[in-house]
Amino acid sequence: MKAIFFVSFFLLVSILSFSQESSRSLDENMKRLKQGYFPVTMRRKIDDSKKYNEHKIFSRICVQEPKGPDLIQYKKDGMPLYVYIFDGDGILYLKDFWKTSRKKFMETRSTKLLIRSPSLFDKAVQSSLFGRVRKFAKGYKNTDVLAMCVAHEASMTSFSSPLDFDISKNALNEFRIFLKSRYSKIADLNKAWSTTFKNFSSLEPILTDEIMDREYGNYPYMNLAPWFEFREFSDNSFIDLVHKLSDIVREESPATPTSVTVTAVPSAFGGWDYGRLLNKDKINVLETYEFPGDKGLIRGLTKGNTVNVCSLYTGRGNSMKLRAWRNFLNGERSNFFAGRGTGNFNKDGRPKEYQAEFDRMNKMAKLIYGAEIEDGGVRMIYSQPSVRCYWFIDTKPDGKTYPNRGSSFEIKHNTYMQVLGGWQDLLGELGCHPLFESNLDLEKGAFKHGVPKVLIANRFCSVSKNELLFIEKYVTQGGTLIIDESFALFDGKGNARINNNIPLINKPRTKLRATFGQVDLKNSTKEKAEIITIGKGKVVLLNGTVSRYGAGQSMEERSAIRTRVENVLGDNNFTVLEEGKKVFDIDIYRFKNEKNYIALVPTKHDVQKNISLKFKGKGAVLKNTYTSKTNDGEISLPKNRALMFEIIK
Prior knowledge:
By secondary structure, the chain is α/β, with parallel strands linked by helices. The chain contains 21 helices and 26 strands. The longest helix has 28 residues, at about 225-250. The radius of gyration is 26 Å and the shape is globular.
């Protein structure tokens, strides 16, 4: 009788649980995710899920098909699942790319190796992908799913590895259709491409080897359109496929958040155009392959609507712990707790040292739910066309060895992303965390996040006619535009503008050749920013770089460029000092909902900071949100952890 009672009770709890989960809307599931912090264990076998609850682990990875062991375990303990539909599948993720396609192409240069296998343009391959996604979405519909991942380590190549995939028959047919929608006549295309094709049916893309031979002699004033538009087509096709996979989940399980994980650094290859990926509300949760400024970029493009996730490798020690805190403040609300083999897991998979961190993050997330992050009216531009052009520029020193630019190398030598990350580090020290405007919105003549006070367009080298007109209008009506000498060097199709002068300000690009293709770190302490008035607004040429601002520049160089930026942005309503001097290496976040909060986190691990935080005017009292203790702004910032205070006027 007792056994029958317990079985009946378990079934009743399961039914009620399934009912509650299926009744939650997508908005409610996202609200849950944004109001807390949800670590996901990489260990799927759990003997005692209560221990996970005690130690703040919320969910576990699930890679099994519906009705498999993971779902059986879920029915026993109700622990939410993070479902991977594809995990090392060999279709979206090419397992042996580095040792096969890339290696053979380096040896032979045979274009036959540039047919992706399997091709993502093959209708049978697409049908297989769509069928698997539909099966998972249906099978886990009545399950508590934290998120359902539709693309893991996916790429048109392998991460951001450069190879001219895909020149399969289906891909080329689609490419020709793409071009016909842009060019009414083949003569118009030939003029833009500097080619002599007789018709669209005979057209072939100009691949990387050929465009290098044709254009590097004209460097930096190169006409890249025939290569550029094939890369654009590849990016668009890849993102459209990812969106389609997400749409299928939404059709079958409307309340389930969709996710992509371990996405690659923005590059000319791989397919990850984040402006296009996040331009529509199709991806709810995203984990990047770590690159400079990644979390700020995702939060900034979506205003925090897409939740950041990361893989938390405990073996990296305190630098990882500190990064988790910086990620959290930038909108991360979950992590994959990848602690296997590091000595930081007990036998049952519990974290030993992160319990307190997860607890603090969980409490902070509830306080700042729905809050806006102060950006000082600053916006940055994310431009995939500029990413493409800069890849071509950056790769000149590599020449024909470019297929060896693996993801780790690309991240360190990608000057566009090094500058993007450097800007975020510098602005973070000023308490400013900008939103991002995509080139797609600028092309339409709109600011997605409202008209900014200051628009940062560094490395914005590929600018269409429409974008240029819109930006000119913004400046003449009173806006401030920050640029460098590469501004609008290319048009929106990757062809260099013939005029040697910088558009809008009509000044020559005197230093352009010296800084192209390099992660330039030098800032002269003697030079000053040039400010050119246009209408009611102004254009600022900084005459300096923020590349690797927090990681590669000397303190003198950092101070020089930061002063120029501060002069443009104007004063904050607060100051942060260390021993009476301007403080560096602290990331400052200001949150505002019905209350005002300020959070501070060091940017260097194992460094303690004693700082003085003062507000202008009558000042304010700071209340520690974790301990509830108040102080007047004298703060001892601990190593490897953030502090957050409520600002009480």
